[in-house]
Amino acid sequence: MSSTSSYVPFYRDSRGNRLEAWTTTEDHGGHILWLRGPEPAAEQILSADPSYSELPHSATAGAAWTHALRSARATPRPEITSLLELLKSVVTLPTPNNTEFALALDWYKVPEEGVDPFAWPNTEIADLISRGKYMYKNNAEQQGRCGRALVDKLCAAIEVHPILRSIEAVIDVPGHDRSRVSFGSRVANTVAISRGAQFIRTQAKSSFRPAAKSLSASQRDEYLGNEFVVSNEVSGKTILIVDDVFRSGTSMASVATAAVAARASAVYGLCGVRTMRR
Predict the structure, then answer these.
(1) CATH topology for 92-274?
(2) What is the DSSP letter of 122?
(3) What is the pLDDT of residues 167-204, one digit of tens each?
(4) Burial of 100 by CB count in 10 Å (0-12 exposed, 13-18 middle, 19+ buried)?
């Protein structure tokens, strides 16, 4: 195990966190999996492999590691090793209400010290979304290319994640204008097709509502708290909510609440990017 002397306590960003590091040590024929990352990352490992149990916090090695998970297996299963590496690259988000966990492929921006945040460059994923949603919104061919590229990246993450690759249906987060199918909804539909999963469209009660990014926290609760309806087709199924951008999580949480009301057995979230705003 790495020395703890060079580590400072793990910084938990309220917007989301990556798994910073992991390692294993032998333990009486089994092993201890040491993690340095957020609580939801450890919870995903525990859910994906029930052979693990979390050791008391006092077992973690000072400031270096945030979680210690013990398994009677000699080494981690290959799919757990792959999941650990995935959790180092994606952003585990603050868990929206009524979801088991939610992930974003990346942040929206690349921070640059001394540069105005409004001038920070987009990440690769954000650039795909920005071009698909805005630059090419009137160019179906180019928008489709951006959308398919994003779908490929979302599906690659799903394939690696042992929980997400077993989902039975995909649902979307509707755009603010019910008369148009949003970029995010098209992406969700295509993810379902690519994964061979059922696509169940979420219904919005309002014909038109302000875009969530333009609303204050209280306004988002007012407009979105009871805005969505999910068909009873989700009953008893594991559901993945797919969206393009995660800002506050209110929209995803509202859709998840509707899915749970329709008796989904479990709800997970996956989106392209997490905005930099707190």
Answers:
(1) Rossmann fold (3.40.50)
(2) B
(3) 999 999 998 887 788 999 999 999 999 999 999 999 98
(4) middle
